[in-house]
Structures are given as C-alpha cells and as structure tokens.
Specification:
The chain contains 11 helices and 20 strands. It is α+β, with helices and mostly antiparallel strands.
C-alpha cells in the first residue's frame, strides 16, 4: 500500500497510509499528516489518487513544496521513493509492491533473487525458458504499468534498445505484459556500476581509464550508426566487470536527463551537454560531450563541473568558457578531451573518431611499454651467456683450453695463428706428394 513516511524532521505520527481519499499535509492538527515544521503552511500540500497512481499538489504554500530537487508549480506525479521537502522536513513517498519471491514466474522467466530497483520498477535476477540463461528482469510498478501513456513509451523504449547488438551494449531480449504486469528481459550484466566504483575508489590509473572511454566510444558509435541517441550517459549507465564494459539505460526518450523532479538530477547534471543545459534536444554529439565529462572524471578524479544544485551545474555547462584541464595530462589526451568538451557540437569529434584516436594512443602506449620491458629484460637474459664460462661456484674456464661454442660451431681461431696453420697445411700437402711419388717408384721396380 502507498504511504508517506517522515524521514527527516518531526511529526506526531511519522507514517500515513494512503487510500482512495486525498491526504493533506501541513501544520494543522486536522491534516492527514501533521508536520512539526516552522516553515510549513497550515495546509502545505496534498497527495491524491489519480488513476492508478498518485499526484502531489502544492496548496499555495508560502515557502514552497520541493519534489526531489525541484519546486512544484501546481502539481507533479509521484513515483516510488520520491522525496518531498518542506523546509527542513523530508517526507518519502513509497508505493512499490512487495518484492517477488524466488520461484515466481513472469512470462518465460523464473525469479531467482531481487536485485534492487530501477526508475520504473523492481529488478530481479532470473532464468529464462528452455535456454536456461541468466537474465535481468525489470517488472514495472503497477501504478505505472496501468498508465497507457507510460506503457506506450516503455514498450517503444524496449523496442528501440532491442535493435542494438554490440558486445559493449546491454542486450534486450524481450518485453511484454503478463496480466497486470509490464516487464522487460535484459541481458544479465555481472559486475559493478561505474557510479559505485567511483564512490568507492581508488581512482582509475590512466591506462585503464582510457580503455574504458575507448570501449564506451565504440558502443556509442554503434548506437549512433543506427540513428539513435543515448541521452543519459553517466556513471550510472555503465557497468564494469573487470576489463569488460557494458553500456546500459538505452532507449530513453530525448530530454529524459532533464525531466523535472528526477531523483538523480544532480548526477545527471554533471554529465549533461552544453546544448542540453540550454534546453535543446540531445544529439549524437551531445553523447560525445557526456563521454568527455565522464572521461574527465576518470582521468582527473572529478567531473568538469560540480555542485549540490543541479541548476548551477547546468549553468556552468551552458557557459561559453571552455573546460579548464589540469596541467598533468599528456598533450594527446588533453587535446582529445578539449575537443570532446567543446561548447559547440559541430566542433566535437564523433564517437567513431574518439574511438580511433584513443585506440591509436593506447597502441602507442602499449608499444612503448613493451619496448621498455624488453630493455629491462635484456640484461637479465644476457647474464647467463656472459657467465657461461664459469664453473658453478668456481672461476671462469678461460685457461681450460676449451673454446666456448656458439650455435654448435667452434669460433674462428685468433688471427695470429692463421699464417702458421697455412704453413703447416702446405707442408702436409708436400709430404703427401713425396710419399705418392716414392710409392709409385717402388711399385714399378717390382713390376
């Protein structure tokens, strides 16, 4: 059952279950949920049922009602885990059903375990059908699943993402409705979201960071080649499994990043392109800017612009001043990063060009590293050959009279012995001739 829960602040009764009738929240004792908040109006806001879901309505409050990070002007739809702020008091809206138990079947998928939540519903690890493959199942919350507009947009998103086939892009296997539920079956992506990896640290080394950016550029090039735009690229849309990279959260409608009242608005603002910050629709070059902001975070340790207020961060992205890069970056990396973060979309490279330039850079770095390693290993490899004349635990065998052998052949004699050997060889031939002549004379005498 849907409910309001006071998470921060004081209230005589911190939990209020919602039903068919509206619930008024404010300072009056007659309110359905009374707040002990000096900045609250007597009747501050109302939560009411609207179709299958709930809507937040501001009642003309003096100090305003804030949903997640934005002030509510009139009314706004509510989603599970939204936060409503009045002054210093925070009220959470919960509407999600109980998680599905293991063994529950949704279409062709058998639920194995719960895996948290997405923007739209619950996430579950499951096994699918006769293929017996591990999949990720998203089951949309009932209130959203019964909204015709949301259902159409959700199914269109799944079809769009399902048209992509790339090793670095999360695959969509199926989307359908099962009685009252609406669900999508995704490829299971083992690993850790990049957002969590960045929170935990430590920072990526430069080689690994460039590898992640190159793989994401390759994935974006595939998306753009099919005339699609990601539009939500951020650490929350990337999963890392060792050295493997997966791009997720595809198929969202244009402008989804800046949808009003998003819970993750501060995160999305850090990776929004300059044109998105100006209110323009995103393009493929907008994804390149977002990738540049993500690359900046991986290489430098922070996004290009930061702030607690999403509006302030977006204002910096929209500004005309270029992103200031730290002096420690090598020229090739700094030049590419500056081009990706250019305020003008036309001045940015496309994703395929970013992938090519990073691939060349990584190949050069790998070649230089291999050469340095070979130089370090060469003295160690040559040491046994230099010491081959030593007896184990004893001195060199330089006076043993045995010449060392190279490739199975004796080395040529020292130059000073060459004339002597020629003289001895000539004397030998002379003796052979004399012996032959003597033998011939003796044989003729007896014959």
């Amino acid at each position: 059952m849907a409910r309001l829960v006071v998470e921060q602040g004081k209230a005589p009764t911190p939990v209020r279950h919602l039903g068919e009738f509206p619930c008024v929240v404010g300072r009056l004792a007659s309110c359905g949920l009374q707040l002990d908040e000096p900045q609250s109006s007597r009747k501050h806001f109302r939560v009411e049922r609207r179709g299958a879901g709930y809507v937040l309505v501001d009642l003309g409050s003096t100090n305003g009602t804030y949903l997640n990070h934005d002030r509510v002007r009139g009314e706004a739809p509510l989603r599970h885990d939204d936060r409503i702020r009045v002054g210093d008091t925070v009220v959470a809206f919960h509407s999600a059903p109980e998680p599905l138990s293991p063994g529950t079947r949704v279409g062709t998928v058998e639920v194995v375990a719960a895996r948290g939540r997405s923007e739209s519903g619950g996430l579950y690890l499951g096994r699918q059908g006769a293929l017996d493959r591990e999949v990720l199942l998203e089951v949309v919350d009932p209130d959203l699943a019964q909204d015709p507009d949301f259902r159409r947009a959700y199914e269109a998103r799944a079809r769009q993402a399902g048209a992509l086939e790339h090793a670095a892009v999360q695959a969509v296997f199926d989307t359908a409705s099962d009685r009252e539920s609406l669900y999508t079956v995704f490829e299971a992506c083992p690993g850790q979201p990049l957002a969590r990896r960045l929170e935990a640290g430590p920072a990526f080394d430069r080689q690994a960071a460039l590898g992640v950016v190159r793989d994401l550029a390759q994935a974006l090039a595939h998306v753009h080649a099919r005339r699609q735009v990601h539009g939500l690229l951020s650490p929350a849309a990337v999963v890392l499994d060792g050295a493997r990279v997966k791009l997720t959260c595809l198929g969202e409608p244009p402008g989804a990043r800046l949808r009003k009242h998003r819970r993750d608005a501060p995160l999305q603002a850090r990776y929004a392109s300059s044109e998105e910050a100006r209110g323009e629709p995103p393009t493929a070059r907008s994804d390149v800017y977002s990738l540049g902001a993500l690359a900046h975070h991986l290489l430098v340790g922070r996004p290009p612009y930061e702030g607690d207020d999403a509006g302030d961060v977006l204002e910096q992205h929209a500004g005309a001043a270029p992103v200031a890069l730290p002096p420690g970056l090598e020229p090739a990396v700094a030049g590419l990063l500056s081009a990706m973060l250019h305020k003008s979309p036309d001045a940015r490279p496309d994703a395929a060009e970013v992938e090519r330039r990073l691939g060349d850079l990584l190949d050069r770095r790998k070649g230089a590293a291999d050469s340095a390693r070979r130089r370090e290993e060469r003295p160690a490899a040559e040491a046994p050959r230099r010491d081959s004349g030593r007896r184990e635990g004893g001195p060199r065998r330089a006076d043993s009279g045995i010449a060392p052998r190279l490739a199975g052949r004796a080395p040529p004699p020292p130059p000073t012995f060459v004339p002597l050997r020629l003289l001895l060889l000539a004397a030998g031939y002379g003796l052979i001739v004399l012996a032959s002549g003597l033998a011939t004379r003796i044989a003729l005498r007896f014959l």
